[in-house]
Amino acid sequence: MPPSPLERIMQSERLPTIPAVAVRVIELVQRPDVSLDELGAMIERDPALAARVLRMANSGFYGRPRSISRVRDAVLILGLRTVKTLALGFTLVTDLRARQGAGFDHTWLWQRSLYAGVVARGVAVRAGLRTADEAFLGGLFHLLGVIALESALGDDYRALASEAGRDVDLLRAREFERFGVDHSRVGASLAERWNLPAALVDAIRHAADPDAAPLETAQLVMCVHAGCAGADVILGEHPGERLGQLRTACQRLGLPPEAAEELVADGLASGAALGATLDIPSSSLEPEEVLARANEALLRLTIESERENAALQAEREQLIQQASTDVLTGVANRRHFHEFLEEHFRLAARYGTPLSLFLVDLDHFKQLNDTYGHLVGDEVLRGVAQRMRAHLRDADLLARFGGEEFVVVLPSTPLEGAVQSAERVRAALAARPIEAAGQEIPVTASFGVSAYRADALMTPEWLIKEADLALYEAKRAGRNCVRAAGDEVSSRF
C-alpha cells in the first residue's frame, strides 16, 4: 500500500529535528517528581536558556518585576510547572527560528504564535483552569506544521502559503487541496515524534476544530482555539469574525463574552513583554486601535448577517408561498387546502369547536370559455377569486379546488354561519359583472355547504363529499344558489 500524504511528509529528511536541550527538558517535563534543583541545574547548563528564564522572571509577564540573578530563584518564584513550560517553549522557538529560510513571512508566523499563546493562557487563567501554561505552549506551537511543511516541501509550499496570505483557514484548505494533508496534522505528528506531552499534541492537532478534541483535553484545546482567534483579532485580515469566535469560545468556557476585548488588550501587553524574551517582534498597534477595528468589523458583519438572514427568510417565505399558492388565481392551492382542512379538523375533533366549508362552482363556465376564449376565462377566474376573498374573513381559507371550482374553509364556524357566508359571496358575485379583457362578463356560482359533526364516520374527505352533494343539489335547483348538507344528504350513503 502506498504511503499516505502525511506519511510521505513525515518521511522527509528535511523536517526540523528537536535540539538536545529540548530533549532533556522534555524528559524533565514528563517527570512529575522533578525537583527545583534538577530543573535549575539543567537550565544552567544552557546559558541562552538560563538567560531567557531569568529575563522572564524579572519581567512583568508572570507578576511584578523582581531582581533575580539565580536560576534556582527564578524557578522558585515562577513555579516548577511554569518553568518547565517556559524552558520547553524557549528551547524550541530558539531552535526553530534559527532554521527558518527566506521567502516566507516568518515574522507574522511567530507573531501569531506568540499572541495565540498569551491569549490562550489568559483565557485559561480567567476560566480557572490548571492548564494555563500548557495553553500557552499550545498557542505558541499551533503553527508547528507550517514550519514543518515549509522545511519538507520548500518553494512549492512557500508559493502556496504566499497565496493564502494571513488567512490560516484558507491556508489549511489550500494545503489539503494541494498536498492531501494540512499543517495541523503535520504539526501534531511532528510533536508526537518529538515526544512532546500528549495534551500539547492534541492542542496542535485540534486548535482549528476544538469540537473534535478528546474529552480529557477539550478545555485546553478550546483555550488554544480562543488564543488563535485572539491572535487574528490583533494581526488577521478578518478581525470582526475572529472577535466573534473569541466571544463564543469565552462563553463555552464559562466566561462572559465581554471578556474577549479584555483578553485582546491583555494579550497585546503580554505579547510585548514575552516577545522581547523570545526575540519575536510584537505589534506596534495600541489596544484601543485593535479593538475599535475589530468591533467595527464585527458590527459590519452582524449587519450583513442580519440582512442576509432577512433575505433568506424572505426567500423562504416566498418559496413557501409559491408552494402553497395557485399560480393562476393567487389563492391557496389544493395541497394547502387539504393541509389546512386536516389541521382544523383535528382541532374540531379534539376540542369540539365548529368547522365548516363550502364548495363553489361557477355556473356555465364552459360556455363562457367557448364564447370569450380561455385567456378571458382565466381573467374571470382571477376576478372571481379577488371578489370572493374580499367577502371572507381573514381566518377563512379560500383555495382553488380545480378548474372553475373553489373551496372555502371556515374555522370556528357552525353550519348556519357558513351558509350565511356563502350567501354573501354568492350575492357579491351576482351583483355586478366581472371585468375581463375590457368586457363586463356576468358570473354566477352554485354553493354547497357542509359542517363538522361529532360522528365516528366523519372525516375531512366526508366533509368535502357532503359539500359536493349539496353543490349538486344547488345545481339541480337552478344554479346561483346555496344549499347545505343535511341529514337527508348524509343518510343516502
From TrEMBL:
<dbReference type="InterPro" id="IPR000160">
    <property type="entry name" value="GGDEF_dom"/>
</dbReference>
<dbReference type="InterPro" id="IPR050469">
    <property type="entry name" value="Diguanylate_Cyclase"/>
</dbReference>
<feature type="domain" description="HDOD">
    <location>
        <begin position="15"/>
        <end position="210"/>
    </location>
</feature>
<feature type="domain" description="GGDEF">
    <location>
        <begin position="353"/>
        <end position="487"/>
    </location>
</feature>
<dbReference type="InterPro" id="IPR029787">
    <property type="entry name" value="Nucleotide_cyclase"/>
</dbReference>
<dbReference type="InterPro" id="IPR013976">
    <property type="entry name" value="HDOD"/>
</dbReference>
<dbReference type="Pfam" id="PF08668">
    <property type="entry name" value="HDOD"/>
</dbReference>
<dbReference type="InterPro" id="IPR043128">
    <property type="entry name" value="Rev_trsase/Diguanyl_cyclase"/>
</dbReference>
<dbReference type="Pfam" id="PF00990">
    <property type="entry name" value="GGDEF"/>
</dbReference>
<protein>
    <submittedName>
        <fullName>GGDEF domain-containing protein</fullName>
    </submittedName>
</protein>
